[in-house]
Amino acid sequence: MTRAEIERLRERARALLPAHVFDYVAATADGSSEAEADRWDAVRFRPAALRGELDAQVATTVLGTPVDHPILLAPMAQQVAAHPDGEIEMARAAAASGTLIGVSTNTAIPFARIAEQGAPWWFQTYLLAEPALTWALAERAAEAGAAAILLTVELTALRVEPHVEPVNWPEGPARARLANLTADERALLGDRPARNPGLDDIARLRDVTGLPVVVKGVLRGDDARRAVDAGAAGVVVSTHGHRRLAGSISAVDALGEVVEAVGADAEVSVDSGIRDGRHVLAALALGARAVFVGRPAWWALAADGADGVARLLDGMADELRLALLQAGVATGAEASAARLARVTGW
Ligand code: FNR
Q: In which residues is FMN bound (predicted)?
């Protein structure tokens, strides 16, 4: 899909959703939800030539899990506000498109219902105020078949949830996000906010679940290195979709520094503002193994359910294949080795 098509998708979602839900999804720390897409648009390519016949290959693996393309679904809270079946539909789309879904802590759907759609999934966790519940929830996700844990370490600038009236999910956001806790656990936790993670939490989560831990929300090479040295199997360069500290650099501006700091010791992926196949090519060329897509998938879910999300993902994968050929390389790894992309100044 082109960015113009994604904008049409967003406008269809706007027409269908209550205004406060649409605004919650669009919200940022400063500027438009599309500001980071503009930064990806500003990446310049140095297309290669004279490389003979090319057969573009977009299939890859993420932490050993095979995917048909490197475009993954970002964990996003409360998808039942976009579609009554929320993450069930999102997981169906991931299965249809041959990719992976991130499942937010704040899901209103039991893990088992998401898992049975057949797509590989990573459980995204915040650290709940009651530590024992974080470990219990992560363990439960592992038992339900999660392939990795995404530990979100970014503090968003927004306090968005209180503005979201629970008209579309009668239990209300605070309850819904605890769908995978027992009633006793819910009572123990109440509505207290999350804790801020430290390095020890990485190994703890890995040991509790037996799963690889990916740290989401890194914008600096030094932090990425510390995360990997503390046991992270991967990092996601992310501004949480421009929802962090106002005035922060964009994900694309941080990617090169993080890739360099991590080297071959962990997998680096990126999100925030990825809107088309050319953006994916830029991310791969700058050293990412995969990207996550957030809001466009939410809008597609609201507008057309699982079919719409699968069309979005398949469309982006097709664009990536074409962009690889136009760039004169067959794979993301070749794009990176050929130093195909250059980030313009910031
Ligand atoms: C998010 N994001 C997010 N991240 C996370 O780790 N846990 C979460 O529960 C949520 N929830 C959430 C809700 C909504 C409505 C949005 C828009 C985003 C951040 C998300 O995983 C991802 O980092 C961004 O959405 C990527 O940016 P784009 O693609 O939306 O520009």
A: 75-77, 104, 124, 152, 216, 238, 271-275, 294-295
- 82-134 residue pLDDT tens: 999 999 999 999 999 999 999 999 898 999 999 999 999 999 998 888 889 99
CATH of domain 3-46+56-343: 3.20.20.70
Question: What pLDDT does 158 receive?
Answer: 55
Q: Is the CB–ligand 1 distance for residue 241 below 6 Å?
A: yes
Determine the distance separating the centroid of ligand 1 and the alpha carbon of 159, expressed in angstroms: 14
**ipTM score here?**
0.99
Query: Separation of 6 CA from ligand 1 center, angstroms?
Result: 17
Which tens digits make up the pLDDT trace of 289-313? 999 999 999 999 999 999 999 999 9
| b/e map 7-42, b = 16+ CB within 10 Å | eebbebbbeebeeebbebbbbbbeeebbbbbebbbe
Task: Report the distance separating Cα 343 and Cα 46, nearest Å.
Answer: 11
